[in-house]
Amino acid sequence: MKFRKLRQLVPGGRGLQPDRLFLQTADYILLLRNRSGRVLEKQRRKYQPRIKCSGCSNTLEEVHVQIWFRLWPAAPLVSLTVCFLKPVMAVDQAYLDAVTEKRIRLFQSIQAEQSAAREKIGGETIKVTLPDGSIKEGKKWITTPFVVAKGISKSLAADALIAEVNGTLWDMTRPLEGDCDLKLFKFDSNEGRDTFWHSRAHILGEALEREYGCKLCIGPCTTRGEGFYYDAFYNGLALNEDHFERIKSQAKKAVAEKQLFERIEVTRDQALEMFSENSFKVEIINELPEDKTITVYRCGPLVDLCRGPHIPNTSFVKAFACLKASSSYWRGKSDRESLQRVYGISFPDTKRLQEYLDLLEEAKKRDHRILGQNQELFFFHPLSPGSCFFLPHGTRIYNKLMDFMRNQYRERGYHEVLSPNIYNMQLWETSGHAANYKDNMFVFEIEKQEFGLKPMNCPGHCLMFEHRVRSYRELPLRLADFGVLHRNELSGALTGLTRVRRFQQDDAHIFCRESQIKDEVKSGLEFINYAYDKFGFTFELELSTRPEKHLGDKETWDKAEAALSEALNEFGKPWQINEGDGAFYGPKIDIGVFDALKRKFQCATLQLDFQLPARFNLTYSAEDEAKRERPVMIHRAILGSVERMLAILLEHYKGKWPFWLSPRQAIVCPVSERSQAYALEVRDRIHQAGYYVDVDTTDRKIQKKVREAQLAQYNYILVVGEEEAKSGQVSVRVRDKADHSVKSMDDLLAHFRDEVEVFH
Question: Which residues does the UniProt record annotate as the domain Aminoacyl-transfer RNA synthetases class-II family profile (predicted)?
Answer without folding.
Answer: 358-658
